[in-house]
Specification:
Blueprint: H1 2-21, H2 24-31, H3 43-55, E1 62-68, H4 75-89, E2 94-98, H5 100-103, E3 115-122, H6 126-140, E4 142-144, E5 147-152, H7 154-188, H8 191-218, H9 225-253, H10 258-285, H11 293-324, H12 341-345, H13 350-360, H14 362-377, H15 398-409, H16 411-414, E6 419-422, H17 430-440, E7 445-450, E8 453-456, E9 459-460, H18 470-477, E10 483-489, H19 497-508, E11 515-518, H20 520-554, H21 558-583, H22 588-591, H23 603-633, H24 636-666, H25 671-703
Antiparallel strand pairs: 1-3, 1-5, 2-3, 4-5, 6-10, 6-11, 7-8, 7-10, 8-9
Helix pairs in contact: 1-8, 1-11, 2-8, 6-7, 7-8, 7-9, 7-24, 8-9, 8-11, 9-10, 9-11, 9-24, 10-11, 10-20, 10-23, 13-24, 13-25, 14-21, 14-25, 19-20, 20-21, 20-23, 21-23, 21-25, 23-24, 23-25, 24-25
Length: 730
């Protein structure tokens, strides 16, 4: 009795400490970064940084729409416009600013002549440019006679995305914890049994805040990491807690006492939790291979959470089960029939009939499941790649409205404008002029401008560089070790195939030292190329490591190979959903957004690692139980049927718990979080139904005794020599 009181007091202290850590949510969110989406080794990034440091030039991060009630070319508007442009140019953090009044570029004036576009180029990394953009918006936004000024640009769009993500994090736990509690009550039918995994989930969620806060001290952590970490911490810890509690109830129903049942649970389900957590962690750790801070920070956060979830479950659940003892089944929920593991195993009904049908018709089940998954994957073939922009903000948000108006009135603001750096070609040299003349002949290009002059249609214009202010041009001309050009195109979309072809052509031009290209299109191309290379290595690493772990744990060659194949198929539905629901916008109206038109190339690698890890989680649960039944009976079909029957309710409840944990992501106001949450939920549902109920049992039935062949076994056709996990039947 004293021991139970001591355990109860210790658990109370742990839970109180967990709740005390929840205020860290706001502190952690404040330390996260909205930057880190670029690989610093890419050519476009290096070119952009070099142009900023050496020539005080680069891509504009701030766009100001100056709308006036008088014509823009009037004396009053012109004087005020030049004065305002000069004030922006001399603001802290701004390296240059230009407008129609300073360069007389008609593309900077609206068709009606009542609005002018002012472009500002900022200095520093993403965090500094966003802070500068916010100061500019606060200082110059609004009414400044004779102008009504609207400030937008990528810097402010990214800042808006980050702020919304931080605000939603504070409400995520308030939504997901009650939903998970309802799932647990439905799964276990009693208050005490449901409270055990829920307590583990609360502790793990609080611990995740400590882990993330520590990570912000040593690395740049994405602003989206806390939202994802909270969802995974709650989902995985409750998942592991449910597995342990379910097995404990089964052992108790078979007649074991409390302490023997706890020991048996740890030897069986506890081993499964360890293997599952290891596989999930290794799958997520592949994100650390990507040289992009955004993916690395999400990898570090999710790996830490997966490890923490396993530790929390394996430490707290045995203590809670021992403390609860005979009282685990107390508090039945009215209207729900309470059942134990033994009762579940003997239950009849549609699910039991289904578990018998699949092993009897494995070929039909395998063909049907594969066909459905391939069909769900087809939309992914239509994927177009592009970076997150204002279209990922909620419809009607101020920043989105402003950016869309500027995009509509000033095609230059939304078009492809590559920046070319000739690193070894002096400004004004014959080589620089010849390069500009040849490039300006391209029918896709309107003009080529820079410190060496302005060029169009293969000829040099008599005026100075129209794409730069005089001060910046003189600075560039004073440096003999290189030059740059800003290329204005007819291409309205930086992510279009034509814009990408133009960047490739510019890079292929023969110039001493080569031509380095910066700008959004060049950055997108570099990111696609980098992700393509690293993803192949990452997929190979995941396959090798997880396959080896499953081989050692399950003593099988076929099951790891089958697991890799089925998990890849299970992700197809989520990848197809990215394009069908978000890029093409078929779900947008229900979630308060619109079609994004493009899929960000950073999202598929992220979702690949997350969904692969969760799919492996289910694979370990089911395969371990089927193997246990095979070792007990020696009959493969019986093992598949019994294993599917006994894990079906657990996988269903786990699926619902993970959906509840991911619900705040799917209902976010940000399209990027909606995509992550929705794709995660779809992948979980498809994996728990089509894959685990049809594909896996059908494949294992067809394989027969080859499921259990391994060179580690002494016999080729039987696993009888393998050490069986201890159970109450052993």
């Amino acid at each position: 009795m004293k021991q139970r009181i001591t355990q109860g007091a210790a658990l109370a202290v742990v839970l109180l400490a967990a709740f005390a850590c929840l205020p860290l949510t706001a502190a952690t969110a404040a330390r996260t970064s909205s930057a880190g989406y670029v690989a610093e080794s890419s050519e476009s990034y290096r070119a952009d940084r070099s142009m900023e440091e050496r020539f005080n030039w680069g891509s504009p991060q701030v766009q100001m729409e100056l709308r006036t009630s008088v014509p823009a070319d009037s004396v009053r508007a012109a004087a005020a416009g030049r004065r305002l442009t000069d004030q922006v140019a001399h603001s802290p953090g701004v390296v240059s600013a230009l407008s129609w009044w300073t360069v007389k570029d008609e593309r900077l004036r609206s068709a009606g002549g009542r609005a002018v576009l002012l472009l500002a180029r900022l200095t520093g990394d993403n965090a500094r440019t966003e802070a500068t953009a916010a100061r500019l918006a606060e200082r110059f936004g609004g009414r400044h006679a004779p102008f009504d000024i609207t400030v937008t640009g990528r810097g402010l769009v990214n800042r808006d995305l980050a702020e919304r993500s931080r605000q939603e994090l504070l409400h995520a736990e308030l939504i997901s914890v009650p939903l998970v509690a309802l799932v647990l009550l439905f799964a276990f039918r009693t208050l005490v049994a449901a409270a055990v995994p829920l307590a583990v989930g609360v502790v793990c969620t609080a611990g995740a805040q400590i882990v993330l806060y520590g990570l912000t001290k040593v690395m740049e952590v994405s602003v989206f990491a806390p939202n994802l970490a909270v969802a995974m911490a709650l989902g995985l810890s409750v998942d592991y807690g449910m597995l342990l509690v379910s097995r404990f109830r089964e052992e108790r129903a078979a007649g074991l006492g409390v302490r023997p049942a706890v020991r048996t649970t740890l030897r069986t389900a506890g081993r499964t939790v360890l293997c599952s957590a290891a596989v999930v962690s290794l799958s997520l750790s592949v994100l650390l291979l990507f040289p992009i801070p955004f993916l690395r920070s999400l990898g570090a956060a999710t790996v830490s959470v997966a490890v923490l979830a396993a530790i929390s479950a394996l430490v707290l659940v045995p203590l809670l089960l021992t403390a609860a003892g005979e009282h685990l089944e107390r508090g039945p929920i009215p209207g729900l029939k309470r059942h134990t593991g033994q009762e579940h195993a003997q239950r009849t009904g549609p699910w039991a009939a289904f578990t018998r049908w699949v092993p009897r018709h494995p070929a039909l089940a395998l063909a049907a499941a594969t066909g459905i998954l391939v069909l769900l994957a087809l939309p992914f073939a239509r994927a177009d790649w592009g970076f997150i922009d204002e279209r990922w903000l909620p419809s009607g948000s101020p920043q989105r409205t402003a950016a869309e108006r500027v995009r509509a009135e000033f095609p230059l603001a939304a078009g492809a404008v590559p920046l070319v750096l000739l690193d070894r070609t002096p400004t004004g040299s014959a080589t620089a002029v010849r390069f500009a003349i040849e490039v300006s002949k391209d029918p896709r290009i309107v003009s080529v401008s820079g410190p060496s002059g302005a060029f169009t249609n293969g000829r040099r214009l008599p005026s100075p560089a129209s794409g730069s202010s005089g001060t910046q041009a003189r600075k560039a001309e004073s440096r003999p070790d290189g030059t740059w050009f800003e290329i204005t195109t007819l291409l309205a979309d930086p992510a279009s195939r034509q814009a990408k072809d133009l960047v490739r052509d510019l890079r292929d031009r023969q110039v001493p030292g080569g031509a380095m290209v910066a700008g959004e299109t060049a950055l997108l191309l570099d990111t696609e190329h980098l992700l393509g290379e690293v993803t192949l290595r990452a997929a190979g690493a995941i396959a090798a490591v997880t396959g080896l772990m499953l081989f050692v744990y399950l003593r099988s060659v076929f099951i790891p190979a089958k697991a890799l194949a089925t998990n890849l198929l299970s992700m197809t539905a989520g990848f197809g959903a990215m394009v069908f629901l978000f890029q093409e916008g078929h779900l947008a109206q229900w979630l308060g957004g619109t079609a994004t038109a493009f899929t960000d190339p950073l999202l598929p690698p992220l979702m690949f690692c997350i969904t692969f890890g969760i799919s492996m989680d289910y694979e370990v649960f089911m395969a371990a139980r089927i193997r246990e039944e095979y070792l007990r009976t020696g009959d493969n079909r019986t093992a598949v049927t019994t294993g599917l029957h006994r894990t079906g309710h657990l996988i269903t409840a786990s699926c619902l718990a993970l959906i509840a944990a991911a619900a705040p992501l799917a209902t976010s106001t940000l399209t990027v979080m909606q995509l992550v949450g929705t794709v995660l939920i779809i992948s979980i549902v498809v994996d728990a139904t089509i894959v685990r109920c049809l594909l896996v049992p059908a494949a294992m039935t067809l394989a027969g005794h080859w499921n259990w062949w391994s060179p580690l076994n002494r016999t080729d056709s039987s696993a009888a020599s393998c050490p069986a996990p201890p159970t109450h039947q052993d």
